[in-house]
Amino acid sequence: MPAKPVLAVLETRDGVLRKVSHEVLAAARRLAAASEGSVDALVCGVTVPGGVDDLASLGADRVLAVTHPDFGRYHPDGIASTIASIGAGYGAIVFAATATGKDLAPRVAAKLGVGLVADVVGLAIEGGAVVATRPVYAGKAIQKVKLRATPAIVSVRPNTFEAARRPGCQADRIAVEAVPVPAFETRVRVTGIKAPEKALLDVTEAPIVVSGGRGLKDPTNFHLLEELAEALGNTAVGASRAVVDAGWREHGAQVGQTGKTVSPGLYIAVGISGAIQHLAGMRTAKTIVAINRDKDAPIFKIADYGIVGDLFEVVPRLTEEIRKLKSEK
Amino acid sequence: MKIAVCLKRVPDTVAKITIGSDGKSIDESGLKFVLNPYDEFAVEEAIALKEKAGAGETVAYSVGTDAAQETLRAALAMGIDRAVLLQNPGSPDGLEVAKALAAELGAGGFDLILFGKLAVDDYNHQVGVMVAELLGLPCISSVAHLAVADRAIEAEREIEGGLEVVSCRLPAVLTCDKGLNNPRLPSLKGIMAAKKKPLENKPATLGAGSIEVLSLEYPAERQAGRIVGEGADAVPELLRLLRSEAKVL
Question: Residue A52: what pLDDT?
């Protein structure tokens, strides 16, 4: 008997699939491969979003299209009702642990009456059940849990499951099937999105994060990090709890236990001493660089590379050297 | 305005965690516990909304052992009117906690039910939203800005690269994010008054749930790194290492 398929719930914004959707597919593919099942990729929108032709090579066997005139923006009640209406047919449902996924997954889990495990960094099948690995206590410990009910519902941490191309997949051969939208009650309505003038990358999703702490001395000095981020490209600017609590930066930029937990490819900590709750929030970064005046700062104990020195000299030089490097390419 | 706030007792965020002898949970001996920091935003919002309305009641709920009475007292000291502890041992999964809270809150006649957006122990981001679904109430999660007028809510929640504007009617469930307000510190008078405020203990029967903890481990230690050098002159060497060794640039 073939295993039940795995449902990958993809995210779009402005009608375009988000990068994290590829990671959700990779996670779903991993579960499907372990249980010899197939992967359905669910996309929502007013119309079928662009880019679905690419999904076969990214791990989907079939695309499920949910189209509705009200689904141009995130529609919690309508989309949760639709996923719940087909959810029982799946062995597992995979969401992204993003702002949307963290809102949507518990709605679906409650509607289906099954448990949910959020912010997962590892997935496997053991004894026929989904087993998830996830950081708890903000990364101070790693918990392994078994999901005994089906569908097993998880959300996966961005930047953790690497999108992988399946070789030999014909991109134009994917089947797109329409999923009927059941009757639903609209209890909440997303009426708009306020985006800053300059599009900002979120610290949880950016491949590179440059974070600043008290060592910057003054909120206006964050321009040094913004310039470094711009030189690096694809980089988000984060902050320590101390400077967020002092009102220097928005809370959305805070890395650490009462802020965000991040896993970028490169994390550059500038003027951050490395309080335990900050380290917990960034220790899963692949490479960590620390720039600090105090050679005994705890941040150097987990940094791969450290520079002891005055950040007001080191950071501008770093920005300058990276600009040079980029212009040579 | 009748407002419920649901709270969790969690280890202090600055505390070091020690894994217990069962290899599945933390060793709680000597560990300092606090009111979940995100729940403080919910408590503050409940008190401020009642103050603004000029009338009403605020009630704090928690599911847990008798030790959670201390957590509820902390909310009473901030200014919550009364508290209810749903006594339950063990660490039930989120859906079971949500079911117990929904059963308790459903007939309470609350205009608003507030939660923190997540608990800083298990990071599961779910109980508040699940309670809303179980009760069939509107829910806005991770609220960073809130306006309540004429029984209508307009809220903003942070999404990647922006803010999502969401509206709904009361009664509703909200989960609160940092940025919503600045939680007040309990006054001495508040702490004294909290000792006399009603705190009801109710045994709760929670199901076994479907999430089974298999193990709890320390994260892999990061290899202690190296100091590349001192001052701005170390920058070229750092870049060389990032390119050729770490291969991240």
Answer: 86
Spans in chain B with pLDDT lower than 70 = none
Cβ within 8 Å of residue B51, ≥6 positions away: none
Write out chain A residues lying below 8 Å of B164, CB-based. Answer: 74, 99, 190, 192-193
CB < 8 Å from B in window 131-170 of A: 131, 134-149, 155
What is the CATH topology of the domain spanning A208-328?
Answer: Rossmann fold (3.40.50)
Q: Which CATH superfamily is domain B2-203 in?
A: HUPs (3.40.50.620)
Query: Which residue of chain B comes nearest to A288, CA vs CA?
Result: B225
pLDDT tens per residue, range B205-233: 899 999 999 999 999 888 878 999 999 99
Q: Give this prediction's pTM.
A: 0.93
In total, chain B counts a number of residues equal to 249
Sequence ranges of the domains in chain A: 6-178, 208-328
Interface predicted TM-score (ipTM): 0.95
Cβ pair B232:A301 closer than 8 A: no
Torsion sign over Cα A310, A313, A314, A319: positive
> What interhelical angle do B94-105 and B127-135 show, nearest 10?
50
Name the CATH architecture for the domain at A6-178: 3-Layer(aba) Sandwich (3.40)
